[in-house]
Design brief:
This protein has three domains: 47 residues, Uridine Diphospho-n-acetylenolpyruvylglucosamine Reductase, domain 2 (2-Layer Sandwich), CATH 3.30.43; 111 residues, Uridine Diphospho-n-acetylenolpyruvylglucosamine Reductase, domain 3, CATH 3.30.465; 93 residues, CO dehydrogenase flavoprotein, C-terminal domain (Enolase-like, domain 1, 2-Layer Sandwich). Strand 6 and strand 7 form a beta hairpin. 32% of the residues lie in helices and 28% in strands. The strands form four sheets. Strands 4-5-10-6-7 form a five-stranded antiparallel sheet. Strands 11, 12, 13, 14 and 15 form a five-stranded antiparallel sheet that branches. A three-stranded parallel sheet has the order 1-3-2, with helices on one face. It contains ten helices and 15 strands. It is of the alpha+beta class and 278 residues long.
Length: 278
C-alpha cells in the first residue's frame, strides 16, 4: 500500500525572501531542487513517490510573486497568485474566459493552487491552460543568466513537460486584453476534454480565430488546423463542422468516447465565442 498521508523522504528546505535568492538556489541545486508554491501538485507527487527532490524551495514568502496589476493593456499576474486571488481580482474582472475556467476548479485547489504552479506542472487537464493559450499569454522566467519572455504555447512541450530550464523560475504571467469586437468562451466536460476559443468577427466573416484543446490529449495546445479553417472565412455550420473535425484529430482515435463528447462541446464553445463577438 502506498502511504499518501506523510512525506517519508528527506530533503533540505529553503524559504527565499526575494526572486534573486530563489534563482540563486535553483542555480546551485538545479535538477535536484523543486519549487514549492501552493503545493497542490508537488506534495501529492512526493507522497506517492512520483518525485523525490533533495531540495525544496518555497516561494510563498516572496511578496512580488503574489501581486496582480495592470501594465498597459496587459494584466500581469504574479506566479504565486492563487486561483482564488485571481477570481477576486478587479484587474481580471473583464477576462471572462479565464474566470469561467477557474470556476470549474475544485474549491480546495482554488485556495491553494497557483497560476505559476499550474503552468509549470503542465498537466493537459489544467483548466487555466486553454484560455491562456487563446489569449496569447506570455510568461516571464528568471534565472541568474537573466530573464526572458516566452509565449505560453512554447512552454508546454508534452504531458507534464515544459521548455523551462532547471535553473529558471517562472515569475509572471502576462495576459493581453481582448480587442473590441472579439468574443471568448471556455467549456469542459469534467477532466475529459476542454476547449477555449477567441473569435473576432466582421459581419459574417471570422476575421480572427484562436482555438485550444486540453484534457485527454498529450498536452494543452492550440488547434491551428481548426483555426485556419475558420479564420478569414464566412462563419457557418459547414465551416464549424470542418473545424470540429480538425480539432477531434488531436484526440487518440482509440478514445472514441471522448472524441464523441468533444464534438458537441467544440461546437458550443466556438458558437458562444462567435455570439459574444457581436
Amino acid at each position: 500500500m502506498v502511504n499518501t498521508r506523510i512525506l517519508t523522504s528527506e530533503f533540505e528546505y529553503f524559504e527565499p525572501k526575494t526572486v534573486k535568492e530563489a534563482v540563486s538556489l535553483l542555480a546551485k541545486y538545479g535538477k535536484d531542487a523543486k519549487v514549492l508554491a501552493g503545493g497542490s501538485n508537488l506534495l501529492v507527487d512526493m507522497k506517492i513517490g512520483k518525485v523525490d527532490p533533495k531540495y525544496i524551495i518555497y516561494i510563498g514568502k516572496i511578496p512580488e510573486l503574489r501581486t496582480i496589476s495592470k501594465i498597459g493593456t496587459d494584466v500581469v499576474v504574479g506566479a504565486n497568485a492563487s486561483f482564488f486571488d485571481m477570481m477576486r481580482s478587479q484587474e481580471l474582472k473583464d477576462c471572462s474566459i479565464l474566470l469561467e475556467a477557474l470556476k470549474s476548479i475544485q474549491i480546495e485547489i482554488k485556495r491553494m493552487g497557483t497560476i505559476g504552479g499550474n503552468i509549470c506542472n503542465a498537466a493537459p487537464t489544467a483548466s487555466a491552460a486553454p484560455p491562456l493559450l487563446v489569449l496569447n499569454a506570455r510568461v516571464k522566467v528568471v534565472s541568474e543568466r537573466g530573464s526572458r519572455m516566452i509565449p505560453i504555447e512554447e512552454v508546454y512541450t508534452g504531458n507534464r513537460k515544459t521548455s523551462l530550464a532547471p535553473d529558471e523560475l517562472l515569475t509572471e504571467v502576462h495576459i493581453p486584453a481582448l480587442n473590441s469586437g472579439y468574443g471568448a468562451a471556455f467549456g469542459e466536460i469534467k477532466r475529459k476534454i476542454k476547449f477555449a476559443a477567441v473569435i473576432g468577427r466582421q459581419e459574417n466573416i471570422c476575421k480572427y480565430c484562436r482555438i485550444s484543446i486540453g484534457g485527454a490529449v498529450e498536452k494543452s495546445k492550440r488547434v491551428k488546423k481548426a483555426e485556419s479553417i475558420l479564420e478569414g472565412k464566412s462563419f457557418n455550420e459547414s465551416a464549424v463542422e470542418a473545424a470540429c473535425a480538425a480539432a477531434i484529430e488531436e484526440i487518440d482515435p482509440d478514445n472514441w468516447y471522448v472524441r464523441e463528447i468533444a464534438k458537441d462541446l467544440f461546437r458550443k464553445v466556438v458558437q458562444k465565442a462567435w455570439e459574444r463577438a457581436r
